Amino acid sequence: MTQKTYKLGRLSTVLFITFISVCTSLLITSIVFYFCQDMAISKIGMFAAIVTPLVVAPFPSWYLMGLLMKVSALEKEMRLLASLDSLTGLLNRRAFFNDAEVLLHYAVREQISVSVVGLDLDKFKTINDTYGHSAGDLALKHFTAALKGSCRQSDLIGRLGGEEFALFLPNTSVEEAYTLTQRLHKTLSQSSIKVQDTAIQYTVSIGLLSLVPTRADTIETLLQHVDSSLYQAKNSGRNRTVVYGS
């Protein structure tokens, strides 16, 4: 009902309500005067039946429609805020999992390749401990901008928690996904954040999995495989991408 109201618009909805009010008033008046044959009274009654709703209906309906649309807009904003990470503006863990499952089901049905990427900032605790949590927040925002610059609009980007991020890349081969991660490594190597007149560089370790999914696959199981590659990247020197199964 609310969606239909938005499509009609506030003015169109008010006019529609007024029209329905006039028709209803005329119908009721006609029924009443059907049993009353006094033409003079009938003409006055019919005139009143038309004029009264025309005068009365628009004002309360305009006000009520304004309230309804404000409430709907607030609900939409609250739903959006509930799905986003407050610091980075990326999808939060719950929203990322929900949206990724939808894309995963589509990939299963169409039998197309997808890539799942896990990312974890290297030695992030050192940044927090040395320069403070504000520096850590700055690094997370900087990394978010680097991610957005490396990804397509169709790619899902989520912050799963802390310095842990994930990507779901629909219709993406392992070669394409690996190229994306190398572009991200290069971007970070050529940039830095500035804290208290000090330029700070950081790196990221990445795990990558590409496949044509089956019905047995879920985003949880795929991320578990990605995590094993991510840990391998961490243990083999950090600042690198490890492809699952390679």
Any idea of the CATH class of the largest domain? Answer: Alpha Beta
How do the SSEs run, as a string of H and E?
HHHHHEHHEEHEEEHE
Q: What is the number of domains? A: 2
Q: Biggest sheet, open or closed, and with what strands and sense? A: 5 strands, mixed
How many distinct beta strands?
Answer: 7
Helix- and strand-based class? alpha+beta
Strand order in the sheet with the most strands: 2-3-1-6-7
Low-confidence stretches: none
Total of helices: 9
CATH topology of the largest domain: Alpha-Beta Plaits
**Helix proportion:** 55-70%
**What is the residue-mean pLDDT, rounded to a whole number?**
83
Could you name the CATH homologous superfamily of the largest domain?
A: Reverse transcriptase/Diguanylate cyclase domain
Distance between the termini: 53 Å
Radius of gyration: 30 Å
* Basic shape: flat
Quickly give the CATH architecture of the largest domain: 2-Layer Sandwich
Task: Please report which band the strand proportion falls in: under 5%, 5-15%, 15-25%, 25-35%, 35-45% or over 45%.
Answer: 15-25%
Write the layout of secondary structure elements.
Elements: H1 2-8, H2 10-34, H3 39-56, H4 58-83, H5 93-110, E1 114-121, H6 124-131, H7 133-150, E2 156-161, E3 164-170, H8 174-189, E4 193-195, E5 198-200, E6 204-211, H9 219-235, E7 241-243
Parallel strand pairs: 6-7
Antiparallel strand pairs: 1-3, 1-6, 2-3, 4-5
